[in-house]
Amino acid sequence: MEPLNTGVIGFDEMLKGGIPKEHIVAVLGSPGTGKSTFALQFIYAGLLKGENCVYLSLEESEDTIVKTASIFGWDLKPYITNKKLVLIRLSTMNIKAAAAWVENDLPRLFKSFNVKRLVIDPITLYEMLYESETLRREHLFNFAEKIREHGITVIMTSETNNINPYNSKYGVIEYIADGVVLLRQVRHNDLQSVATVIEVSKMRRIEHSRDIKPYSITKNGIVVHSEAEVFS
Q1: How far apart are CA 213 and CA 196, in angstroms?
Q2: Considering the domain 3-224 in this protein, what is its CATH number?
Q3: pLDDT tens digits, 137-159
Q4: Cα gap 37→122, rounded to integer Å
Q5: Which of 10, 137, 147, 190 has most Cβ atoms within 10 angstroms of its Cβ?
């Protein structure tokens, strides 16, 4: 399958080239692990290749996203001006309106804008729109099918579960996603040093590294130390 580079140094090596085209990938992590940074790198890598991209945020404003990207040296403004990037902030204040927009208007945007890469950051808030697990599963599966109809490659970020840090908050998106990437904070035995590590727990239809690798959030974004070992 054709791999798409994520822009995350070292991570594409773990996948032997990148995320397979048209995959839906869930990036899970607790606060501060760099989920949004990972998503922005993925989008910026697509923009550099001339791809049309959409960044759907359920938390941050458009201005905040642009400012955050600029911290890492990624200037999004020219791509917004040239209509290569659409930034959307979806308010969850009106639950019914938010759900209707995601399920009806967003697919129309996919077609009219010829979207190649999509980020939903975080998908957790979309999941919260539905009170029952049955409704949550039904709507997420239907939404994923609409995405696949348009051949888009997707990163969905999610908070991890408070009880099980290896699962998403609601434990649903792992089943609809083609790939699952887990960002974690781990402590040395002395409980003084904290390290961040990444692992690919699932990536359908390709061989990938099963190793847990350390990574850093630098001034240039996330860098995975693919040749290093954790606590080496």
Answers
A1: 9
A2: 3.40.50.300
A3: 998 898 899 899 999 999 999 99
A4: 12
A5: 147
